[in-house]
Specification:
single chain; 157 residues; seven-stranded antiparallel beta sheet; Pnp Oxidase, Chain A; mainly beta; two-stranded antiparallel sheet
């Protein structure tokens, strides 16, 4: 089998297009921001360290809630299952109250925890933040972990 390759210009749209070919997991991240629950859908979530248990994700500097995310002392990672596209879409839609009419409870340090069953839920406390290009990387220590046998959602475009 012959595979054709070509060198591409590294510009934002070409880079994004090529990276979108890579399968990625999807998570909804929630936190307390300015005394209210905030949340967003991300695909930049990943493990950072096993000992100690650290995870991280990146937020775009242009995010409408950027300052609230930077001020948050922790966050909850909800790894989404294949049948939870409604939650993925809800938390990916800007300009709306993402928690309106949604079942959630208060977790570690007052953070909002979605009550929907998910493959993996991690309640975390932020240990570091640093700028990385046009995003800020938020690293947190996992304090509480809840897991189920359901398969996580993976997207590939």
């Amino acid at each position: 089998m012959t595979v054709t390759t070509s060198t591409c210009d590294v510009n934002p749209s070409a880079f994004r297009r090529q990276l979108s070919r890579w399968p990625t997991g999807v998570a909804v991240i929630t936190a307390r921001g300015d005394g209210r629950p905030i949340g967003k859908t991300v695909n930049s979530f990943h493990a950072t360290s096993l000992a100690p248990a650290l995870v991280g994700w990146c937020i775009d500097h242009k995010s409408s809630q950027f300052d609230e995310w930077l001020a948050a002392h922790g966050y909850v990672v909800h790894v989404m299952a294949g049948d939870q596209m409604d939650l993925v879409t809800r938390f990916a839609t800007s300009g709306s109250d993402r928690f309106d009419g949604l079942d959630w409870t208060v977790g570690l340090d007052g953070m909002p925890v979605l009550t929907a069953a998910v493959p993996l839920r991690l309640e975390c406390r932020v240990v570091d933040r640093f700028a990385a290009g046009d995003h800020t990387y938020l690293i947190a220590e996992v304090i509480t972990m809840t897991a189920s046998e359901s398969a996580p959602l993976a997207l590939q475009r």
